[in-house]
Amino acid sequence: MNIRRIHKNDNRAIEQIIRSCLIEFGGNRAGLAWEDDSLHHLYEYYNQSDNQAYWVVEEDGNILGGCGIAPFGNEGDICELQKMYLSQSVRGRGISSELLNTALDFAKLYYNKCYLETLQNMHAANRFYIKNGFELLDAPLAGSEHFACDAWYIKELI
Prior knowledge:
Layout: E1 2-5, H1 11-24, H2 42-46, E2 53-59, E3 62-72, E4 75-86, H3 95-107, E5 113-118, H4 123-131, E6 135-137, E7 151-156
Parallel strand pairs: 4-5
Antiparallel strand pairs: 1-2, 2-3, 3-4, 5-7, 6-7
C-alpha cells in the first residue's frame, strides 16, 4: 500500500471512487461534492498552489481512495479536508488514519486549523473524525460551499 500525491492519470479512478461513495451514502445530490467542478480534474485543481495537495492510496496499481487539503474560502489560516473517500473494500484497514495523518502533516505547514464537512449518516466517518481530534460544530463556517452537508468539524493544528 502506498500513499502518494495524485498524478494526472489518477483523475478518473479517484472521481469514480468519490462518486461511488457519494451514491452509497445518498450524497449524489445538489450541494455536495457530487456537483464540484473540480471532481473530474483533481490533479489540476490541487496543483494550482503550494498550499494545497491531494493524495491517493494505491495498491497493486489500483487507486483505492484519497483526500485533499485546500484553503477554506478566504480564511488564510483555515484549510479544508476535502473529498476523503475510500473504496468499500479497504475500509477498516487503518488506511484512513494514514491518509488523514499525511494530509494533516501537510496542512500544519500552511494553516492553523482544519475544517471539514460531511453527512451525519456517515456514522463511521463521524466517529473517525472525533477520534482524530476534530470537534463537532453547531453550524458550518461562513463561506461553506457544500450547503447540503449536515455535520461540520474543526481541528486545531498548532
